UniProtKB/TrEMBL annotation, chains A, B:
It catalyses: (6R)-5,10-methenyltetrahydrofolate + H2O = (6R)-10-formyltetrahydrofolate + H(+); (6R)-5,10-methylene-5,6,7,8-tetrahydrofolate + NADP(+) = (6R)-5,10-methenyltetrahydrofolate + NADPH. This is Bifunctional protein FolD. Its EC number is 1.5.1.5, 3.5.4.9. Catalyzes the oxidation of 5,10-methylenetetrahydrofolate to 5,10-methenyltetrahydrofolate and then the hydrolysis of 5,10-methenyltetrahydrofolate to 10-formyltetrahydrofolate. It holds the Pfam family THF_DHG_CYH. PANTHER family: C-1-TETRAHYDROFOLATE SYNTHASE, CYTOPLASMIC, C-1-TETRAHYDROFOLATE SYNTHASE, CYTOPLASMIC-RELATED. Pathway: One-carbon metabolism; tetrahydrofolate interconversion. Keywords: Amino-acid biosynthesis, Histidine biosynthesis, Hydrolase, Methionine biosynthesis, Multifunctional enzyme, NADP, One-carbon metabolism, Oxidoreductase, Purine biosynthesis. Coiled coil: none annotated. It comes from Jiangella mangrovi. Homodimer.
Amino acid sequence: MTAQPLGGRELAARIRARVTELAGARRAGGRAPRLVIVTATDDEASAWYVRSLASAAGKVGIDCDVADLGPLATAGDITARLTALSQDDAVDGVMLQTPLPAGLALAEVSGAIDPAKDVDGANPLSLGRLAVGRPAYAPATAAAVVALLDEYAVDLAGARAVVVGRSAVVGKPLAHLLLDRDATVTVCHSRTRDLAAVTSTADVLVAAVGRTHLITPEHVRAGAVVVDVGTNPTPDGGLAGDVDPAVASVASALTPVPGGVGPVTTALLLQNVVD
Amino acid sequence: MTAQPLGGRELAARIRARVTELAGARRAGGRAPRLVIVTATDDEASAWYVRSLASAAGKVGIDCDVADLGPLATAGDITARLTALSQDDAVDGVMLQTPLPAGLALAEVSGAIDPAKDVDGANPLSLGRLAVGRPAYAPATAAAVVALLDEYAVDLAGARAVVVGRSAVVGKPLAHLLLDRDATVTVCHSRTRDLAAVTSTADVLVAAVGRTHLITPEHVRAGAVVVDVGTNPTPDGGLAGDVDPAVASVASALTPVPGGVGPVTTALLLQNVVD
């Protein structure tokens, strides 16, 4: 068997086309939609991601500013800026880029982002609302996983879904999104005993841990659908997923890295800005 | 095998003793701690529970008022009262009792409870904070399950925990509490296919669905620890759990109903008022 590749580029292009249209209408109506990305790091991978996001925003007609507070910014500096941007009527979306200065957790400061502008679902209130079925922006990566599964008509109701990774930005919100779609959901993590025994129960397996090729064919039930959220840098400057490509010999479908979840994530983030 | 009964009355008594001491100190210092329970229903079981909670509060030295808005209260009425109580310096804890008037979900109005007074963890922000590891009150029932497991030294790290029920007040917050304790957590619900196949993977099985004796010996792995959150009224005026008592022949330990999770829930709720 060779797994069907669940590419995300076409879906992302369709989402971006819709966003371009909406942003154009807003621009014609007086003001282009505006996203502000707050950064507080000198991490190079982060800077690269922010540049690519700003470029993607520009292409769909969204103005994008980067507010760089520098790696010495305090929690007070960051929350003050997030609060000001939340109150600024000329700003539609606010995103706080990680990593943050040492010792500072995203959830400690992201509460200062107005949920109505929290386009990457970073505020704990957004996660809580998501969990109880109230309107809220989900973290774009988690939303992208479900959007990709929908794109390929993967049936989630009653399916056994296993999420590897319990982060506040992917694993936990994704668990709620999958539960909301009537999947039976298991969350695994670094302390899970016999990971392969758990993951091989999955009809739908999502890897979101950030460890290159952690998921091997032994972790996957024959015919499972596998979604790879990992974007681990390789020595040659490329990207590797959390899923060993050999899994394609066992799974019925597998998202590529790059070109799977990533482009959909970016497109959904931009969609949240114009929504 | 006959399962060890994991009774909650002793633990509850110890918690109440501590609360009595703290409430007495507060009373001596000028003002007794005060809990206000907001109700908007003429449901009899709810009224019984509120009376028993008020009585329990009185016994530990907590003043408890019931604000009965009646079954015709609107969302606006309820949020206005919750907001006023949140701002009232003479009130330490605010609880909104369910059921609410027809068509109104708890999460639609519970956002009006100040998280610092949200002693039953009803505000979606409390759930979101819980999920990301920020300080927050957990719903007392979910916290009681973990407290009982701790009382009997059940090891959660690396254990496979299965929660049956995905409610915002028990199943979902409990999943986060168990994840936080390094369990591998699965959430099942009414749409789960082959429930017994999933539940029988559990080292720790928690039933929180509100269906009398749904969990039978066929659902339980030999030696599993089983926690029964169900409190279903029986025709003769008693209480029945979600777990068939015959499970005691398979499980290594089982919480009784009544006398298991219930008393610990009440004690933790009162503890949250004085904390």
